[in-house]
Design goal:
seven-stranded mixed beta sheet; five-stranded mixed beta sheet; 12 strands; binds pyridoxal-5'-phosphate
């Protein structure tokens, strides 16, 4: 076949068949080292498993094909992947990051990356004028964006950001964990790097911690990112890489089911008397909906946040009384999760204290609505009159 649709690429993991065994599911390779040729060469290209484990090959190739990239590398976690991009820069480089972003990476940028000499400036990435004004030609080396962004699901215009950044000589990296390649392919909009916390939707079963970076093309920064992984060694384990490959085969139906259910849940609670606001890019009234509709295809993700009208205590009580929605951090698994986000993120969080972050899984959407509804009713009955 000439060119396969992404659904087929994912389902058949590029259709790789092992030459020797003819098996259609790849193996877990545990060897940490590889034999040298008698003449002292390493003709098979593998020297040591910190960088060359064959178990990485298939998930890297599949994700690379889904993102339309030049090359993809797996990492030990989303954080290992994201921080490798910043570690590829030089002390003194100016970097733009969004005010609304994955909190742990924001904390790392504020602490470690700043101590190490990067000049980090946090801007409202949904405001293109503010973004444009903060980019310093020749000095800004990287613009990092996340879209939709935790935990407000703010949408950043990828194409417009790339235009502004590239004009000033800066690279753009997109944390596309929430969108996944099912809904958005940032490289098509001009991004230089795409990052995933593969822990989330790519794996999809809450049993692997892993990360990935895809590069749009080969360049000096990509070579530096490669050497950060090879030298620092933030690699996924072979079992995790294998599980991730297994999980990615069902990426499309999982993400599509989660999107359809999230849209239903969001529309239902947007009208609810005990809810003050539903934050979901699929709602026509959501700021950023039009940009999301332009750069996302087939859905608006499985992530949303709901603000409980009666305030923080009521929000915590809702999370305490759901049964199907599991009270836990993380996202992108087959099971739905709910979390009072301000208590996780602490100081500096953009999350209001009445906000519950919700990761919609693949259960019945009606069950999810009923469960949240009964928890809202219990919380309301407990609230001081
Ligand atoms: N980016 C986003 C959007 C995330 O939600 C997370 C984790 O929650 C990360 C990055 C970090 O990924 P990991 O937990 O695999 O290090």
């Amino acid at each position: 076949m000439k060119s396969q649709k992404p659904e087929s690429i994912a389902a058949q993991a590029l259709g790789w068949i092992d030459d020797t065994t003819k098996e259609i599911v790849g193996q877990i390779h545990t060897s940490t080292t590889y034999i040298r040729d008698p003449d002292n060469q390493y003709r098979n290209g593998r020297v040591y498993a910190r960088d060359h484990n064959p178990t990485f090959d298939q998930p890297e190739a599949v994700l690379n094909a889904l993102e339309g990239g030049h090359q993809t590398l797996l990492f030990a976690s989303g954080m290992a992947a994201a921080t490798a991009v910043f570690q590829a820069l030089n002390p003194g480089d100016h970097v733009i990051a969004p005010k609304v972003m994955y909190w742990s990476l924001r904390n790392w940028l504020k602490t470690f990356a700043s101590r190490w000499g990067l000049q980090i400036e946090f801007v409202d990435a949904t405001d293109l004028d503010a973004l444009g004004a903060s980019i310093q030609p020749g000095k800004t080396k990287l613009v990092w964006i996340e879209t939709p962004a935790n935990p407000m699901w703010s949408i950043t215009d990828i194409a417009a950001t790339c235009e502004l950044a590239h004009r000033a000589g800066a690279l753009v990296a997109v944390d596309s964990t929430v969108a996944t390649p099912v809904l958005s392919r940032p490289i098509e909009h001009g991004a230089d790097f795409v990052m995933h916390a593969a822990t989330k939707y790519l794996n999809g079963h809450s049993d692997v911690v892993a990360g990935a970076i895809t590069a749009a093309r080969d360049c000096e920064t990509w070579q530096r990112i490669r050497s950060v992984r090879a030298q620092i060694g933030g690699i996924a384990g072979p079992f995790e890489a294998w599980l991730l490959m297994r999980g990615m085969r069902t990426l499309f139906p999982r993400v599509r089911t989660a999107c359809a259910s999230a849209q239903r849940v969001a529309e239902y609670f947007a009208q609810h008397p005990l809810v003050s606001e539903v934050l979901y890019p699929g709602l026509p009234g959501f700021i950023g909906h039009h940009v999301a509709a332009k750069q996302m295809h087939g859905g608006f993700s499985g992530m949303m946040s709901i603000r409980v009208k009666q305030g923080e205590a009521a929000a915590i009580a809702v999370a305490a009384n759901t049964q199907l929605w599991k009270r836990a951090t993380s996202l992108g698994g087959v099971e739905s999760l709910i979390e009072h986000r301000a208590s996780v993120e602490g100081e500096g969080t953009p999350a209001p204290s009445d906000l519950l972050r919700m990761s919609v899984g693949i259960e019945s959407a009606q069950d999810l609505i009923d469960d949240f509804e009964q928890a809202l009713a219990i919380a309301a009955s407990q609230a001081p009159k």
